[in-house]
Design brief:
four-stranded mixed sheet; alpha/beta; six-stranded mixed sheet; elongated; ABC_Transporter_VariousFunc; single chain; binds adenosine-5'-triphosphate
């Protein structure tokens, strides 16, 4: 079995994983992970703590060798790890100079604009910046390298709510302008609505769901109605909650059948990304899956 990270040939596919597996000693952190991420997408990589998100990104970035399967990325990759690596004694300007030296392609204006946008002082040593500001420096260096695929591990973790919104908006702007593909891992799912258009959901090292987000959400529905053991229409129950006299079901609708119409005391509503991810995580935690 091939265990190399190699360039993807098809231009329409930015990232490809084929039966990818990685273990630490005898424990598999990632197993049988197969997916294709089309170019120009913003993909959210979600999963519980320890699900394998960092491992997957590190393997895709070519920094860790897989033990099984193969991974490929089209073009140049920039990876910003969870630690947001910056040199404490370097000023922000020196970090940019280092970016210019280390990268074969470098766009100083692009990196500079990002820092200006977030009001990061260029003359300040990185060690005297806040955690969120250090993250912005790491993003600026990654953006300056003009990657085809930008991978960000927990990019929103250190940021205040406004900065989160601004970072996601700026990332979308970069995607629109450059056509790059973004893969970002996060626990802040609520703030990905309108940002991510693709989902990769990991549980216990395995890919539980993946694909176009709109298609995925359209295949699911939330029903609320009188207390019941079963939902009002056919489908796979992803999550069932019962409170007082009321039941709520998140259901995956059967493929190839017309969408059911529910009546009487039952109401239905569309599934949001947060509904979907929380229901899947709850199901895996209860040991129903994975
Ligand atoms: N260097 C390592 N040595 C041994 N086990 C490791 C190592 N790194 C990760 N693991 C294990 O591999 C599994 C996946 O870890 P990983 O860091 O990829 O998860 P994650 O989804 O990124 O988690 P989090 O959301 O907490 O950051 C976990 O069980 C973890 O304990």
């Amino acid at each position: 079995m091939t265990t190399v990270v190699e360039p993807v040939e098809a231009a329409a596919t930015a990232v490809r994983a084929q039966a990818l597996g990685k273990r630490y000693k005898d424990k598999w952190a990632l197993r049988d992970c197969t997916f294709e991420l089309p170019a120009g997408r913003v993909a959210a990589l979600v999963g519980a703590n320890g699900a394998g998100k960092t491992t997957l990104m590190t393997v895709l970035a070519g920094l860790l060798r897989p033990d099984e399967g193969a991974a490929g990325v089209a073009g140049r990759v920039a990876f910003v790890s969870q630690e947001k690596p910056v040199y404490r004694h370097f000023t922000v300007a020196e970090m940019l100079r280092m970016g210019a030296r280390l990268n074969t392609v470098w766009d100083q204006d692009r990196a500079g604009r990002w820092l200006e946008r977030f009001e990061i002082p260029l003359d300040r040593p990185c060690g005297r910046l806040s955690g969120g500001q250090q993250a912005q420096v790491a993003f600026a260096v990654a953006i300056g390298s003009r990657p085809d695929v930008l991978m960000l591990d927990e990019p929103l973790a250190n940021l205040d709510p406004l900065a989160r919104r601004e970072v996601t908006a700026e990332l979308l702007g970069e995607v629109a302008e450059t056509g790059m593909t973004v893969l970002l891992s996060t626990h802040v799912v609520a703030e990905l609505g309108g940002v991510a258009d693709h989902l990769l959901l990991l549980a216990h090292g395995r890919l539980l769901a993946g694909g176009d987000l709109d298609e995925l959400l359209a295949r699911h529905v939330v029903y609320t109605g009188p207390r019941s053991d079963v939902p009002p229409a056919l489908g796979k129950v992803v999550e069932a909650r019962h409170r007082g006299g009321q039941s709520t079901f998140l259901v995956e609708l059967p493929e190839g059948r017309p969408r059911p119409v529910v009546a009487g005391q039952w109401a239905e509503r569309p599934v949001t990304l947060e509904d979907y991810v929380l229901a899947q995580l709850a199901a895996t935690r209860k040991g129903l899956k994975g």
